[in-house]
Amino acid sequence: MDTLANLGEGFLTVLTPINMLWVLIGAVLGTAVGVLPGLGSAMAVALLLPVTFSLDPIGAFIMFAGVLFGGLFGDSIAGILMNTPGNSTAIAGSIEGHAMAKNGRAAQALATSAIGAFIGGILASILVVFFAPRLAELATLFGPAEYLALAIFAFIAISAVVTQSIIRGLAALVLGLAISVVGIDSISGTSRFTAGIPELFDGIDIVVITVGLLALGEVFAVAGRRGYSDDTGLIQSKGRLWLSLRELRQALPAWLRGTAIGIPFGIIPVGGAEVPTFLSYGAERRLDKRRKKPMFGFGAIQGVAGPEAAGNATAGTAMGALLALGLPTSATAAILLAAFRQYGLQPGPLLFERSSELVWALLASFFIGMVVLLILNLPFAPLWAKLLKIPRHYLYASITLFAMLGVYATSGKILDLVLVVVIGLIGFTMRRYGLPVAPMLIAIILGPLAETEFRRAMAVSEGDPGVLIDSPITITLYSVLALTVAFVIVRVVRAKLAARKEVTV
Q1: Do the domain assignments include residue 237?
Q2: How far is CA 234 from CA 75, 111, 402, 407, in A?
Q3: How many structural domains is the chain composed of?
Q4: 43-47, 220-224, 333-337, 413-417 — which one is most confidently predicted on average?
Q5: Average per-residue pLDDT in the chain?
Q6: Would 77 be classed as within a structural domain?
Q7: Fewest 10 Å CB contacts: which of 63, 299, 375, 468?
């Protein structure tokens, strides 16, 4: 009953004109940025970070929630209508979605995507409301060693397990850890890697890092593509915006299966919704093969419904893991963790006690944001697609201007403008050579936490390293991590051996 009462108070906080305005703005901005290829919800949140500091925390995070879920649906619009998903999380749903569009069923594909996003997000939000407080109570059992184990789990899982190349993932992780130690050591008070520049004593601002890495990095990457054409090959969305009874019967089980697949992955640090969306796509494809007339490859509605529900379910439970444990399980969650810290807040068990009004307002905004997005996206998806016709040079010049103004307005430091360009060039280089961005962001956010907790554990144990693996929680986390890494290594070795056999044959 306490949960329902707290959620009711959260709805009362959100259902005010000004906060409803922030929900609407977040949904609109998230969808608009998500539609544009190469961008997505992570970049939308990064670009909004500098301009939300004038808002109160509740208004800012309500807007961020709208941006998060709006960006996911915007990614799908580009994938369905243009076969160019706005983000990697929309690739799985775009395979059959674009096939539906080519068959003249673009409107039905967009409706399937919107309803799937709504169902997956709503069911995940319900679970978060009832289980996040319990998860926060469990987190009170965590000490320095447990938090260090959790951080290491996130580092290795996102760097080695999810990325296509283990070496590149670990290289991005090391680069992020190197950036995270710039500044004054919080325990000894010694300056590190500051080159004697006073402005770097507080470290590199997370706003500078996220905007440079995501926004300017993408701008430089687009500018570096020679011979790029602005001809999008956009398919017009025509026809009915609703689903027939037969289509609903086909899509409903896929929506529910996708939600069930996506929910657990929001809690596990696997880098985002790429894994559950492809798992859902694979499950629906296997089920389709059993039918008398398989539809996959010709525009199967189940191939859109499952991945879309899985992606939003993962995003919903990822917010629960962030709020209850302080654990970012994706790049977007890492940026939101940085946003919390900018407001002097630390997600975790104490957040539910110290900032309960913010937490429950944020949880209530998930439900309201889902409804707003459904209303916005069902009839207006073709209108969002018009953004794809904006010439790239105008679009990315505007993003650059907005990013630089936002960074300067936050700090007023010329050095930050230099740093954001340097980090943007690092982001461009990472894209050029295939280094993933998510491990670097996770390292920058969780690196200081891991260092602090390690040193605290050593101080409490008087230098005994055994304390790091001296509890059931740490043993469990390290055991699961070791098994997962071993599984990945075996899979990679088998794939290489199979490739060699094919070459020799």
Answers
A1: no
A2: 14, 17, 27, 34
A3: 1
A4: 413-417
A5: 80
A6: yes
A7: 375
